[in-house]
Every structure is written in structure tokens, then in C-alpha cells.
Amino acid sequence: MPSDLRRLADRQDAVLSARQILDAGMSRSRVQRLVEEGAWQRQHPGVYVVHSGPVEWRSRAHAALLHAGDGAALSHHSAAYVHELVLRPPASVEVVVPHQRRVVGSSELRIRRRRAIVAERRARLVVVDRAETVLDLLGAAPSEDRAAAVLCEALRRRVPPDHLLDALGRRARLRHRSLALDVLGTPTVEVESPLELRYRRDVERRHGLPRAVRQRWELLDGRWLRADAVYEGLGVRVELDGEVAHPGGRTDADVWRDNAVAVGGGGITLRYRWPHVVADPCGVARQVAEALAGRGWTRSPRLCGLACTATR
């Protein structure tokens, strides 16, 4: 292989297109012979992996881009993997191409068409940019809870909320768009988990409860412990035990915190799990409101609908 072609292959994760090979002076018959001998591997029509070993994911991604042609970019979970928004590469490579193009996919390559592609080059691969990738994952989420998890993970990974809002402005139609606007429209985004998002939206906002301080670190009985939500000045704490955060229910730290609060006369801790917040947010709001009212809150919860049970 000519040295300049070898350098190009190194930059493309051991992948070359037929056009690149022919432009470098190699003949079609030479390429065919290398494939037949097993020295090279045909990944897609006119796209080759220039070694005989296992084909790594990055090589598959580069091959997909060469196959898809000009204007193509890795998208969805493939882009998320390159952006380090997810930890594992997807089984199939996902690529978007300009809407007017027709590209044939396969069992290992999913092709989508898009009128406007916002892409960038990252780690030598052309990918849909981070904010647009988050919205792609959001739109593909099968449920609102999964969509909330996508948003929370993106914010934890330091995707700027204003970038996400700008991207939302370019998409008039997107599944879970209202959820994203609800989360990202808050001046200060402090969402730590999907369960916290549910609590903030379905319990606090919809029932007119005061907004708790999120993820508050407190020194209790000589230990620094974190509370999920603290209603400052009212002596009420709320702990949200999602399965991901606390697989076995209450943790040792939970016990220390609750005991220290009780012993010190510092208030009460209310604890809720997914079934409470998701299945009966009105009941949760009623209980929190009663706790707050017993400690000085002078307002009443707001009914969120005709069937709301937040007030007795």
C-alpha cells in the first residue's frame, strides 16, 4: 500500500473507500485480490477495512460514514457514544444523511434522512453535535420517564441547557418536547434524577407547593449528609429513593440523617419512592403540605385537576 494511503487509513481507523484507493494508484484487481486472500475485509459496497482482524466499533463508524457519503454524520446512540453521553457503543451504527439522498442501510447500519444536519468533527469522526444528539435520544425515548432520564444524564454530563433550548427552537415537532421545555425553561436547572424531576414538576409545581432547596449538604451529628430536598425554615426534608440511587431502599446514611434530625428536633423526613410520586402525586402533595402547614406554612396546596386529592 502506498505510504500516503497508509497514513490516510491510519486517520480513518483502518478504513478506506474504493475512490480513495483508486485515487492513490491501486487497481481494482489488486483490491479484489486482497479481499479474496482475506488480507482486507469489505465492510460496505466500495468500503474496505484494510486488515484481517476484528473490526472495532470506530472502524465500523468510519466505514458507515464513507459509505453514506458527503454530508453524513453519526447520530443518535452512535453520536452519543462519541460524545461520551453513553458508556457503551450501540450494536448498529446510526447515521443521518441529507434528506435528498438515498443510502442503503443494513442490519448493522441504520440510515435516517434529515433536512438540516448540525454536525461537528469529534475524535476524527463526523457526528451530530451534542445538543442535537440529546434531542435525538429524547425523541426516541419510549416513555416520559425514559425521556426524563435522558435529560438528567445530559445535564449531569454538562451539556449546557441554553444549547439544548437553542436546538429545541429548531425542532417544531419532537416527542417529549414539552417535557424538555418544562425542565430546561427553569432559570436554574438543578435536576439530579428522573424521580426528582417528577417530584418537582408533578408534586411541587402542579400543586403550588414552595420550592425545596435541592441536594442540600448538611452537618448533622458530626456527619456531612446530603438531603434530596429541604424546605428551609420549615423543618421538612424529602428523600426520593429511586431504584438507581438506592437499590435496597434506605441506606446507612439515610438512617444516620433521619435519626440526627429527630434527635436534634430539626424536623421530619418524608420519604417517597417511584410508586408514590408517579402513581399518586396528589397524595404526596397533600402529605407534604400537611407537614409544611404543621411547621408554619400558611398557604394551601392548589388542585391540579377535578380529581385532585391534594386537599381534603
Automatic annotation (TrEMBL):
InterPro entries attached here?
A: AbiEi_N
A Pfam family the protein falls into: AbiEi_4
Q: Where is the AbiEi antitoxin N-terminal domain?
A: 4-50
Q: What is this protein called?
A: AbiEi antitoxin N-terminal domain-containing protein
